[in-house]
Here is the input.
Amino acid sequence: MGKFFFDHNGSGETRLYICTPCYNEARGDTIEAEGSTFLKTKLEKKRNDEETEEWWVQCDKCETWQHQICALFNGRRNDGEAEYTCPSCYMQEIESGERNPLPQSAVLGAKDLPRTFLSDHIEQRLFKRLKQERQERSRHLGKTFDEVPSAEGLVVRVVSSVDKKLEVKQQFLEIFQEENYPKEFPYKSKAILLFQKIEGVEVCLFGMYVQEFSSECSFPNQRRVYISYLDSVKYFRPEIKTVTGEALRTFVYHEILIGYLEYCKKRGFTSCYIWACPPLKGEDYILYCHPEIQKTPKSDKLREWYLTMLRKAAKENIAVDLTNLYDHFFVTMGESKAKVTAARLPYFDGDYWPGAAEDMITQLRHEEDCRKQLKKGKTKKTIMKRALKAVGQTDLSGNASKDALLMQKLGETICPMKEDFIMVHLQYACTHCCILMVSGTRWVCSQCKNFQLCDKCHKAEQRVDEGDRHPTNSREKHNLYPEINDVAQDTKDNDDILESEFFDTRQAFLSLCQGNHYQYDTLRRAKHSSMMVLYHLHNPTAPAFVTTCLVCHHDIESGQGWRCEICPDFDVCNACYQKGGIDHPHMLTNHPSMVDHDAQNKEARAKRVLQLRKMLDLLVHASQCRSPQCQYPNCRKVKGLFRHGIQCKIRASGGCVLCKKMWYLLQIHSRACKESDCGVPRCRDLKEHLRRLQQQSDSRRRAAVMEMMRQRAAEVAGNTN
Here is the structure.
């Protein structure tokens, strides 16, 4: 379960929780969080295994109390005065004729989520393959098609599809500044979920996040796809095996992945990359809190799971070749003539090697500084020269030498675990230059299985002496015949942008689930959590967390409060509003009820976004304004908030409402801000904080991989002895 630390002396109801990695990351006697500094001696160490008390709801008919989770009660849709009927009373009323059953359309489910070309493609393929599998199983068992069970109630949906930009790490960029290496790579991030109706309730069983780098993206990321995260929970029904012996659950998940690869191939993508890295113990990738009975697969098991899927894709010619990052980019094999350089490596968000490379560059620079200072630098210099000579370089200070040393160090690290860095060719690669071919003619050897050349390399092949042509190690020369590369000219995505505050990143989705205790550790919790996930997807303007009154700090039930339509997160409950004395310059409007929430549409959401943008613009203006008599609306108020933030002793972590509001706006601003010298207070600190959080996550994954490799080496050594 892991450990965490929390502030046990803070004032107010808000408690500060800090995980062990962040605690250890903070050097010295203090730690900074949410704009405040805390003494480490004031933090108490706790285990993260405490049971959270569940909320209850009472039936207005029989007055029986039930857990909200068991009753599938959605407190966000409760108007306070609405009557609640428990399932038992509801069934009795239907049987007695007092009530008509609600139609299925009364509650929006997974099928009601927007469909996309991608989700349709995956669903159609999945249903077709499930039908074929059921037919095979019925023949194998000697039964009719209807006599054998099959997976029912499956729905695939893309819940997020947004444009993003990946910034290249600075030290790596400096090595390739002479080669005009891109400073950033634009890509589209997508989140795909699978739902299944289990016992009448839709449950989210599977999710994955992917990164798509289009044909318009710069080399080396052009036309590449990265499957960044994949997660599932073990509630799939029915729990049976296919004719081949694999679980039907595995069959379905494989078909979703193969369907996605097939769709990418049709769109013109050339390759897909998968880092087979299981999550650390106690951590979740997408779905929060897995069942205890569900074991986390080890690296070799997870890798074989992916490879089994890819072999199926290869049989359908969706994948034309399977290799790994090391064999394709770090070594020249056979007749390959491609340059070994880090500039050719695909650069993905959250992947292993970009973070590892940055650590290695720092280490190389440190070694270089030490070499210059040490009197016995001659010995170190000799060692460095030998390493450079081994990779064909002589200049210690040149960027080409740094590139060569970096590739050598990366290669040494990746080689022992190279099989975990899977590379899937969706299009054919030229044997000489290793570039994946998308246009022109592909020249294929009539005798060798995996030899083909692009137009450029084929022309170069014709210019060399006949003795040096393919195959180079034989006197007998092979004929090459032409084939046309039939690949889409561009990777245009016909699907609309799908923005979702809660699904645009896996961290945002995990935060939503963790903050609301949307857990998947039991089936009953998974049902309720999935119901709430669908609620948030269908009601994007609804608050992520229970709204709290800024006066009394109590939770506000749906439809029982008042909100400012101009200032974000200014909410008061009915009781405090009726008492009066609310000092606020703008008019407050009554919270929308359940019916009003259902009526909200894109226009309402756009209005909310526009209001937030105005607030952020005001934030930037106030940080730069030096006029004491500024007429810009609310400029002086925001300046007052800045002054309050400097002087306040309670702070956001202690429950200060003004500090909470300012901290909320600063966080939104810092995520969007691209200015290196932004004048908004604490913007740079927040950006650094967010950057460090991502670094910590990546570092933990890399550290886990290195620890796994150490254990493997120890096991091998033990078996040898």
